[in-house]
Design goal:
4-stranded mixed β-sheet, globular
């Protein structure tokens, strides 16, 4: 047998590991391939840091609120661009209003990048999910480029990219794509730096593109970055001696001017909206939303390491993590520092000053010192007289302390630019210091953006923000100043990248067996560990349309669509997403600004019987069709809706079309759709029902029209016996109180008041009440009731009540009724009685009864209700979605 001969590979052919190294080396040497590898690297890191989002990109969203609205926005940008681009801002929401895309962010710069996905048939929510994932990637790569440009170090770029992409605050913005997608901010700063270093037309064009795309992506980032960009430009002009360079000013102005002209059609609609509808945030709203410095010590709860730090914070969690801060501080040290090319080029600049120049500098310093002193005195005086009456308040209403402090700050900065004070150790001035090579561009610009972003994030708690808010009208469109922290994170990321390189160099010099690259790799892994949020919590959204939406898509209409139940608590967000499926005009949408008639529509359908005014409003808003999503109604609201729509159909102003999927009802408004035909009879009985019968049939009706009387009954028990009622004793009294009252009847309140007077009169004759109070004197009776209710009536009021009882002008039933109705008692019992009625209505049991072990659940829901500002709808959704309630309905043979 012959032994097989193994032929050696040619000398110029490499195999195995060597071939891979050669291939990677070639890719790393090609600029475009190298950039592609970096982007792929950030894709991989993002998949790790947001896991398992990458496995659910068809329908993953942070929540079912704003992501739905933003998904619609992206779709509308694509749809209108290829159908009617000149009417881009006349969107199919808030019909019949105009410029409705400008009621919030237009997101055009984001949508533009994902037009190919729409062309391939991707669903709107899928595009939003992919865009959210790519937002992390984009931010990481953009910060990588900025830090690499400023430091010349790839390692610094990776550190900066990780910090900026995964800073905990970005996860707080998970549901707000336009704020999360902030990569154009560092790219814009990089473009400005590149143009300052080389004033070519190519770099000027890139500066204009970055400026335009930053504004198209997010109007908020366009506005908030303006002060930082202006200060950065001033620094670069001084740093690179560009004040007299014509190419810098001409080419830069041309690029930014053309970008501004291209941006103008996207900004004018916001101006029209502010003038037409008077949409603007008042100063009081901005003051209320302005964070304190302590907010920077509050962390996003999704962060696995620091979430405990923000557990008790109600504001924006701005804490960026500990390691990024430590690395940023290291950037100001000389650890492992090397003088870069830029620093070397600028090193050792000697400024010759002739005697004339020296005399002018001395004259300017004296003038600026005097201006600073005058401004300081004026600021102190203005602080005393501001807000007072008379001439002082009038004069210093114009020359405010804020403006005086601004003049003081400008005078001091100008003074430092001319010459440092004699007592200041360094000689020269601030401009000479910036031109010297001690600190690189990365340190100066990183510190500048970190400082400006920090001050911006504090809102009106910062003098800097107050000044830009008062004097730059664009800032009056901003409601949440905390978003300015994103600018600080840009500076922090750059400083952290530079600091990591310096730490790595310092370690490598002391440990010859450890490379600087290995140290940077360890620091990056440590950052990924500290900033991690995986496994990331998210929900799976309603990516596909339902049957009624598909029917609307096929139905021509003269007006718009109203979908009920309405409200900004998630309902209208879903309807906006569905508007991307049917493309018909939607009346009740949601946005940053909402027209008053839409709020009125929300209020008319929020709770209790629906007033006939709703029909008038539907016609005023040019409504063609009304959709009622019965599955989204709280159980206690079904009767209110059925009675309203039964009456509307009976009067001929609405026509019932049909029910879809056994839950969604479609009605036509006959004023605008007289030809619409009914396809099915009404699926419910249109006769009015008695409240006591409804309570007997299903206690959940306690939470409808009867709700306030149920709260009154709870207080009656509390004042009488010092404890809330039990379910078994409450329900018979509730049915007696509701006896003979027709649901939705305008005279129902009168009947309820009569029933209540009869009930409370009988109440004081009951054995339990007589046993507790029968032997007490009038004064003791009043004191006992007040003690049970937790009240402390004034002595004169107590005496007057006792005298009224002795004289017979008042009865004990009357005294009890007056205490039950006392405002402080009503306010204190509002949340406990609300939660109690939800226990009775949904679970048909007492709080603390099995399957609960104690009343901790009851206390929990009271606290939740307080945090939600008394939002009963949110509480109702929680109880209606509970496993106990669904199991109860299943046992009773009702549909869940």
């Amino acid at each position: 047998m012959e032994t097989p001969t193994v032929q050696a590979a040619p000398a110029n052919v490499k195999t195995g590991r060597g071939a891979w190294k050669t291939l990677l080396g070639r890719l790393a040497g090609a600029p475009r391939a190298r950039e592609a590898l970096v982007i792929l690297g950030f894709f991989a890191v993002t998949a790790l840091m947001t896991w398992p989002w990458v496995t659910r990109m068809r329908d993953a969203v942070g929540d079912v609120g704003d992501p739905y609205m933003i998904a619609w926005t992206l779709w509308w940008d694509y749809h209108q661009t290829f159908n009617d681009p000149l009417n881009l801002f006349h969107a199919n929401v808030f019909h019949p209003y105009r410029y409705t895309l400008a009621f919030s962010e237009n997101d055009y710069g984001i949508a533009l990048l994902f037009f190919p996905l729409y062309a391939l048939g991707a669903r709107p929510l899928t595009v939003h999910s992919v865009a959210t994932f790519c937002g992390f990637v984009f931010c990481g790569y953009a910060a990588f480029r900025l830090a690499r440009t400023l430091t010349g170090s790839v390692a610094a770029g990776w550190v900066a990219g990780v910090v900026f992409a995964f800073v905990p605050y970005r996860f707080h913005l998970l549901s707000h794509l336009h704020y999360l997608f902030a990569g154009w901010i560092p790219l814009l700063l990089e473009a400005l730096v590149l143009f300052a270093r080389e004033r070519s037309w190519k770099r000027a064009a890139w500066l204009g593109v970055a400026f335009l795309m930053n504004a198209l992506t997010c109007i908020t980032w366009f506005i908030l970055t303006l002060p930082a960009l202006a200060l950065s430009a001033a620094f670069l002009v001084a740093r690179y001696r560009l004040a007299r360079e014509r190419a810098f000013w001409v080419r830069g102005a041309a690029a930014l001017g053309l970008a501004s002209l291209a941006l103008l059609p996207f900004l004018l609609p916001y101006y029209h909206v502010s003038r037409m509808y008077n949409f603007a945030w008042g100063r009081e709203e901005v003051v209320k939303q302005s964070p304190r410095v302590s907010t920077w010590l509050s962390a996003e709860t999704r962060n696995r390491v620091w979430r405990w730090l923000g557990a008790r914070s109600d504001g924006s969690p701005l804490f960026p993590g500990l390691l990024p801060l430590l690395l940023a501080l290291a950037a100001f040290t000389r650890l492992g520092a090397r003088r870069g090319d830029t620093a070397a080029a600028l090193e050792g600049v000697a400024v010759e000053k002739d005697s004339a120049t020296a005399r002018r500098a001395e004259w300017w310093t004296e003038l600026l010192d005097a201006a600073a002193l005058a401004a300081g005195v004026l600021a102190l005086v203005a602080a005393v007289f501001e807000g007072t009456q008379g001439w002082g308040g009038t004069v210093f209403g114009v020359f405010t302390s804020d403006r005086a402090l601004f003049v003081l700050a400008c005078a001091l900065v100008a003074r430092l630019c001319v010459a440092y004070p004699l007592w200041f150790r360094p000689s020269g001035n601030l401009i000479e210091t910036m031109r010297a090579g001690r600190h690189s561009d990365a340190v100066w610009l990183g510190a500048l953006w970190a400082a400006v972003g920090f001050l911006m994030s504090l809102g009106t708690n910062s003098l800097f923000y107050r000044l830009v808010y008062d004097h730059l009208f664009l800032f009056r469109s901003q409601r949440l100043p905390a978003r300015g922290a994103m600018l600080a994170y840009v500076g922090l990321a750059v400083l952290a990248g530079l600091g990591a390189v310096r730490v790595a160099g310092w370690v490598a010099r002391r440990r010859r067996d450890v490379s600087a690259g290995a140290v940077c790799a360890v620091l990056i892994l440590a950052l990924l560990f500290e900033l991690r949020a995986a496994p990331l919590r998210f929900v799976r959204g309603a990516v596909f349309p339902d049957e009624v939406t598909l029917r609307l898509k096929e139905t021509p209409m003269r007006g718009g669509v109203v979908e009920l139940p309405a409200g900004p608590d998630g309902h209208n967000h879903l309807y906006m997403l569905r508007a991307a499926d049917h493309a018909r005009p939607l009346v009740n949408a949601t946005s940053s600004f909402v027209p008053q008639p839409i709020w009125e529509l929300h209020e008319l359908t929020r709770g209790g019987p629906i007033a006939p005014r709703l029909l008038d409003l539907l016609e005023e808003l040019s409504t063609s069709y009304v959709v009622v999503h019965n599955a989204r109604l709280a159980p206690e609201r079904h009767t209110d809706y059925e009675q309203f729509f039964a009456r509307a159909v009976a009067t001929g102003r609405l026509r019932f079309v049909r029910r879809f999927e056994g839950r969604d009802d479609l009605y036509a408004v006959t004023m605008f759709e007289p030809e619409a035909r009914g396809e099915e009879p009404l699926p419910f009985v249109s006769t009015m029902r008695r409240l006591d019968e409804m309570l007997a049939e299903d206690p959940v009706n306690l939470l409808g029209e009867f709700f306030e009387w149920g709260q009154t009954l709870e207080r009656l028990h509390k004042a009488s016996f010092g404890r809330p009622p039990r379910y078994e004793e409450f329900m018979p009294d509730a049915q007696r109180l509701a006896a003979g009252v027709l649901a939705g009847d305008e005279d129902g309140r009168t009947q309820l008041e009569n029933n209540y007077r009869a009930l409370i009169s009988d109440w004081t004759r009951r054995a339990a009440f007589v046993s507790s109070f029968g032997a007490l004197s009038d004064e003791q009776f009043i004191d006992a009731l007040a003690r049970n209710a937790g009240l402390s009536p004034p002595a004169d009021e107590r005496a007057a009540l006792a005298e009224a009882l002795r004289s017979g002008t008042e009865t004990r039933a009357g005294v009890l009724a007056s205490l039950v109705a006392r405002r402080e008692f009503v306010e204190r019992e509002n949340y406990p009685s609300t939660v109690l009625l939800h226990y009775f209505g949904y679970l048909r049991r007492d709080p603390g009864a099995p399957p609960e072990r104690d009343a901790s659940g009851f206390d929990f829901w009271i606290t939740e209700l307080e945090h939600a500002g008394g939002d009963r709808a949110r509480l109702g959704r929680a109880f209606a979605g509970s496993g106990e309630y669904l199991e109860l309905r299943k046992r009773l043979g009702k549909q869940p």
